[in-house]
Design goal:
Layout: E1 3-6, H1 24-34, E2 39-42, H2 54-71, E3 76-79, H3 90-99, E4 106-110, H4 116-124, E5 129-140, E6 143-146, H5 160-172, H6 181-199, H7 204-211, H8 213-221, H9 228-248, H10 260-278, E7 284-287, E8 311-314, H11 322-325, E9 338-342, E10 349-352
Parallel strand pairs: 1-2, 2-3, 3-5, 6-7, 7-8
Antiparallel strand pairs: 1-9, 4-5, 5-6, 9-10
Helix pairs in contact: 2-4, 5-6
């Protein structure tokens, strides 16, 4: 069985033109890239359900799913929710809890019309076998795929969501000593539920403004707007002081050095903790979430291995994020358009299908 994985399309985002796969040539490149696979895996954050009402988001993305459904007719399409579209999983998680009370690292359920927002996607793709898998899925005996949002529980960089997750961990009494899917969902589920429901009653512009705080901080730290003195104060005074307070309050441990290197390293270490904690014994683990594709040829291979020896592969994103890309082009690790191909045997292959495509500037 050959599989093709894409993640982090963030379809329906309020940032103009950022969800590049929604239409035009990028949509066709995406469909073409996955059409030869027996199984198409949509590995989380496919829908942006934190920046607007779910009905409006679904209508905006309908053309892509109808196009994908036609191209994948007779095949299997797997929907693996992430943190931004966690609501897709809720009806199925409720069913699992009623049936067994326990979540496994890889659960699967068929999606039928009427199964919440995911059921609407089933209506638009009537000729595919549409299933929901959560929190992850086995694609081969040695290949496991998961969106990767569980890593936020273990992240040591002070991202806003990681801080909120740490606070929720304290509130639930679980802290960072989390290993099972039930533990992760107990900490993350209430936060995701709040953010989803908040998006149903708040205007998109306000949500976009609030969601851009982390991006603005990143931009200012890494040569964006503002004076050199302002960047110095932010990186050497403001953030370290805030991190020290967070650690004193018991929400850490967080580190104050925020760079592309520390972001990558912290994310990979956290993902390794998730994989080994869940007891996933795989040779290869594919995840998304961080939007940073890899491994790249210039990366240290040792960073891309878990303590248990699994090789990590990141599926990048299909979101044009100018703050992360900066003035870089298609060689930037955050450039959208990544597809991870899983052959019947051998290593996964990470490719970018939008390197030669002219893309609009996103947010």
């Amino acid at each position: 069985m050959k599989a093709a994985i894409v993640s982090d399309l963030h379809l329906g985002t309020a940032v103009p033109a950022a969800d590049v796969a929604r239409e035009g040539e990028p949509m066709e490149r995406l469909v073409e890239a996955v059409s030869a696979a027996d199984t198409v895996v949509l590995l989380g954050d496919v829908l942006e359900l934190r920046e607007g009402p779910v009905g409006a988001v679904l209508e905006a993305v309908r053309p892509l799913f109808e196009r994908l459904g036609a191209a994948a007719a007779g095949k299997r399409v797997v929907l693996v929710p992430g943190n931004h579209d966690h609501e897709l999983a809720e009806p199925f998680l409720a069913r699992a809890r009623l049936e067994s009370g326990r979540l496994e690292p890889a659960g699967e359920w068929p999606i039928a019309p009427g199964d919440g927002p995911a059921g609407r996607l089933a209506e638009w793709m009537p000729d595919v076998e549409l299933v929901l898998a959560y929190p992850g899925i086995w694609l081969r005996d040695d290949v496991y795929a998961i969106h990767g949002h569980y890593l936020d529980v273990h992240l040591t960089l002070p991202r806003l969501e990681s801080i909120a997750v740490s606070a929720m961990g304290r509130l639930t009494g679980r802290g960072r000593a989390i290993r099972s899917p039930e533990d992760y969902e107990a900490v993350l589920g209430p936060l995701y539920g709040f953010l989803y429901r908040f998006a149903q009653t708040t205007d998109s512009e306000s949500l976009r403004s609030k969601g851009g705080i982390s991006r603005r901080v990143w931009s200012n730290l890494n040569g964006g707007a503002g004076s050199r003195l302002g960047r110095f104060a932010l990186g050497r005074v403001t953030i370290p002081a805030a991190v020290a307070l967070l650690n004193v309050a018991g929400l850490g441990p967080f580190h104050s050095k925020v760079t592309g290197e520390t972001l990558r390293q912290s994310g990979l270490r956290a993902m390794g903790t998730v994989v080994d904690g869940l007891g996933v014994e795989a040779a290869h683990v594919v995840f998304g979430h961080t939007h940073r594709v890899g491994p790249l040829s210039r990366d240290d291979p040792a960073e891309w291995r878990t303590p248990g020896g699994a090789r990590l592969w990141n599926s990048g994103s299909w979101l044009m994020e100018t703050v992360l890309i900066g003035g870089g082009g298609p060689s930037n690790p955050y450039w959208p358009g990544t597809v991870v191909l899983i052959p019947e045997e051998g290593d996964p292959e990470v490719v970018n299908v939008l390197r030669e495509t002219r893309l609009p500037a996103g947010g």
